[in-house]
Design goal:
Arc Repressor Mutant, subunit A; about 210 residues; about 70% helix; 2 domains; mainly alpha; DNA-binding; Tetracycline Repressor, domain 2; homodimer
DNA sequence: CCCCGACTGGACTTGCTGGTCCATTTTCTC
DNA sequence: GAGAAAATGGACCAGCAAGTCCAGTCGGGG
């Protein structure tokens, strides 16, 4: 969706086998990058992992490594929201919020200290607007889903009508993001949980008087 | 404090001139790294910026680039908390919290999309425990300061006594961290502000009944 | 003032990695 | 089934950047 500007001319001229290979490269590369980080990952690593040759890499990604990394970034970004479904799409009761919370925690605890997007972003980040666009779009979408969830709560009379849904969603998103970041460094998911739980508590407290911690 | 294990033997045998040069290297390197990111920064860039020679770099950092990056990371980490003083040390009234909030926002808005620590962490990150230790210690200290601030509020009767200071501090720290991260990607400080303000609002709401957005 | 060790300069080596090229095989299309 | 286009294999190249080395200067303590 984002990379669709430059290389989609090729997308058309891809045979079934070609598409399969391309996908294999992207997925394999994603794996390698998650495991050892982009700083030390070479094209040969990816080649080895995906059972491909140098020429294949450049056949499918003519603009070289950056383009490949970008494709991987897009691949990872797509997974982020997918992995939160269907919960993220139905945040209309407190139970669904709790389920979503658990899904998020579970997803990132499983991921451990591998930070596919953060690292990729920093790798390609400054070079082109490409990576930035991917991350920005992801954040926008994510926040939108959260805000919609908060509005659902409001419509169900579960939170105060005076609550600014977008603002709350922004804060919550920041908390998640930071929680994940901290977990990358420390290996501890305490902060992520604290951010999620505190945010939900804040929402709940908006209606009834005092905040139950 | 953290790097003090391996190379401090050298620290002793440093003359005044030597210390000055070493400091110049670290500060200069920090500047270059902030500006162009570690992925594309070479020792020659640092050499040029600091007016030093290759041999000097390796004279002061015998273990090479990694050691230098680690020193820079420590240098940057030290600044993070320093830049929040004296506010971070005196979070006992709502006014002081507000001042601190403004200081944080101002600091990171000025920093823009340069992420000294995040990028450095990812560069050296997985290689050794060194970088990880630096970040972990920074987070620990930061959270501790925030928790102490919350306890000050409690002692002054400004927040609910049932509030878990450490948990709130963890959530707040995550929010800040994520806000900064998002600002790196999008260039927009909305999330950082939302995280800070929402967290403070949550603290205030813990005492009186309903939460004023 | 002199001498040893810290400090500096910069040429050189070396390994690696992204990227190129062309020859060969497979696959689609007519 | 034949020709073209796509897919694949792998040798090869070029540049760059980390790290080495030694020769020369400086500086301070005895």
């Amino acid at each position: 969706m984002v990379e669709g500007r430059h290389a989609d001319v090729m997308q058309d001229s891809l045979t079934a086998k070609g598409r399969a290979t391309r996908a294999r490269i992207v997925e394999g590369a994603a794996g390698v990058l998650r495991e050892q980080g982009p700083a030390v990952t070479t094209l040969d690593d990816i080649r080895a992992r995906t059972g491909t040759s140098k020429s294949q890499l450049f056949h499918y990604f003519p603009q070289g490594k950056d383009q490949l990394l970008l494709a991987v970034a897009q691949f990872e970004a797509d997974r982020v929201l997918e992995d939160q479904q269907p919960h993220l799409g139905r945040l209309d009761t407190w139970e669904s919020w709790q389920e979503w919370r658990d899904a998020v925690v579970e997803r990132y605890e499983r991921q451990g200290d591998e930070c596919p997007l953060g690292s990729l972003f920093l790798q390609v980040g400054r070079s082109g607007p490409g990576a930035r666009a991917i991350v920005t779009e992801l954040m926008r979408q994510w926040q939108e889903d959260l805000a919609r969830g908060i509005r659902s709560l409001r419509e169900n009379g579960l939170v105060s009508p005076s609550l600014d849904a977008d603002r709350e969603a922004a804060a919550l998103l920041a908390g998640i993001q930071g929680g994940v970041t901290i977990m990358m460094s420390t290996g501890d998911s305490t902060h992520l949980k604290a951010a999620l739980d505190t945010a939900v508590a804040h929402l709940r407290a908006s209606l009834h008087g005092t905040a139950p911690v």
